[in-house]
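Q: Hi! First time doing this. I have a protein sequence and I read that you can turn it into a structure. Is that right? Here it is:
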Amino acid sequence: MAFFLETLLGGLMAGMLYSLVALGFVLIFKASGVFNFAQGAMVLFAALAMARFAEWIPRWTGIENPVLANVVAFVLAGVVMFLVAWLIERLVLRHLVNQEGTTLLMATLGITYFLEGLGQTIFGSDIYKIDIGMPKEPIFMLESMFPGGVLVNKEDVIAAAIAATLVTLLSVFFQKTSTGRALRAVADDHQAAQSIGIPLNRIWVIVWCVAGVVALVAGMIWGSKLGVQFSLATVALRALPVVILGGLTSVPGAIIGGLIIGVGEKLSEVYLGPFVGGGIEIWFAYVLALVFLLFRPQGLFGEKIIDRV
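A: Yes, that's right. Below is the predicted 3D structure, encoded as structure tokens:
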């Protein structure tokens, strides 16, 4: 039972990180109808900015306290992501309003390659590390309930807590603030939102900036766990099954979908992997997404589309 709980907790914590990346897709699609294929590149760019600023700030300012240096680096990287998001909306998406979905998708693909190239030009192409002080050693929990306790990685616990906190704050933002309600109104009907005076361009800038902050937090966490390298851009591919499972228009769906995918990957690898030679964790999420595309393409919480003829 203790081993099962270890696997389950590991899956839940990995699922929270998947949900964090998937939120970037959902937020932008809900507000603008754009499937942002550049979300992975935004995560990479944010992680590069965070890692390099953390290196440069002690030399620029003489700050020797690593915690303070990381805080300043996070703030500067946040400013950079706000600027990137604003420029994407101002220079690209604003000129593609009411275009076909394929056109918008190709635009985000172009943004992907541009951000990857720009990140390499500005920040370099080496492998960098982000050290935000998260402990790496494991801990034993529930020792009074199970002999030997349940082994959990401290870093995973803290990363999952950060992701859960951000998800909660975003949920409160969408539900309780006037800007959040305006975002939901735009998501429901662009023309109706415009008719009551909600400026679409301002809303799109806000949602891209929020997606930039989500990318920064995701990049910081994944960069701390895996190191900052250009393969980090592929983390978005890990979030695609989450979006398909939960629904492309649902914030709760991104959360639930991420948890299901994370737990499913870990349990299938541990309990089914030995029978097929392992490797299930690599493709489990995509097979599950394929099943949902066949039988429930709108996902668990997505809006069902009914065509009347």
